[in-house]
Amino acid sequence: MQIQTLSFGLVPPELELTRALPTRCEIRDENVWQSYDQTTLFYDVVHCSQSGLVKVFMPKLFNLKHAFLASSFLFDDTPIKIHRLIEGRQFDVAVFKVVSKPNIFRVVMSKNAEVTARVNTRDTTISDANILFTMSKDNPLEWIKDWAQFHVRQHGTDTIVIIDNDSDTYNLEDILECLSSINNLKHIRILNAPLPFGPSQGDCTHWSLAKFLQVAMLNLGFWRFGMRNSVFLNLDVDELLMSRKDNSIYDKIRQKPFGYMTFPGEWYYATDRGQRPMHSDHFLYCTDDKPCPTKYAIHTDSILSKLALKVHNLNYIDRRFFKSKDDFYFLHCRQISTSWKYDRSSGNTKHLQENTWARNKLEIALNQTSSQ
């Protein structure tokens, strides 16, 4: 059970250089500059002892690319050249080959401006694991606990990885204490990412192109903690994965030839108890609602694991070809939200029906949690 750190670095202020918005983005609200990441050069530096590779995960470089590539790179004062620059849609990765694990990574830019960071190591203690991953900010701890507890009891989750986006209402130790009370968890990893999340739809056009952190953390989490023979399940705190046939998603993924599956989501609404809604209250649905975009699980040894992870599917892969046909889907709990995007505090304005089967599932998985 560990709290770990990101080794991030910022563009030196003396360069007077900031990241420009993507060219396709047109500003709708000047508040975009409050949420857009103009100054982070890289998010984390991670060494893999098995491959001898060091990966530096970065927000999309855009206009910073030339300055970065023109820099000198050193590991423990030993100069080194970039082996490969992997350029994604929302993040980039600089790959280096080293003989042994370095301790310090240095980027010497123009005007001798330096960025220095400690080198982290891939977590080799996590293998043969059933991993549940999310990114969170200020979600109440009881929500986080219920979300984790549900997947431990229903699917056999034994490893939780949470990237906390610098929550204001509690600290990392509080998250760790909350999850440590759950039985059958072998590994808990909590990391803080005190970095801009990115703009919303009201800030600029093509806003998703300007959101780097979530997708970068997803791929970083997979690389840093998704070791051999493990299954990596990507769900938000307001999402609960259901199985109509009482299957474990981890077992099913291990049986799949490609080790990958997507599953649709359905909006569910909370019954009104006159207090803060919980996951177990979300058993009401509306037949008029459209399905939510898919989420997925992937085996770390899958041939598809070489592709970049996105929020709802893998890059370059049509999610429909790997969709769960009649078993897995996730409950998207409408009122499990801090309403950071838009107000989700109410939802009972529609004609709602009760899903008795889902209600029983939630009660069985979560009734012990609520009594703790």
What does this 3D model show about the protein?
Helices cover 18% and strands 29% of the residues. With 372 residues, it is of the alpha/beta class. The chain has a domain at 2-18 and 26-121: Immunoglobulin-like (Sandwich), CATH 2.60.40. Strands 1, 13, 14, 15, 16, 17, 18, 19, 20, 21 and 22 form an eleven-stranded mixed beta sheet that branches. Strands 8-9-5-4-12 form a five-stranded mixed beta sheet, covered by helices on one side. A hairpin with a 5-residue loop joins strand 10 and strand 11. Helix 3 (141-155) runs parallel beside helix 4. The longest helix is centred in the middle third of the chain and has 15 residues, at 141-155. It is globular.
In short:
The protein has about 375 residues and is α/β, with parallel strands linked by helices. About 20% of the residues lie in helices and about 30% in strands.
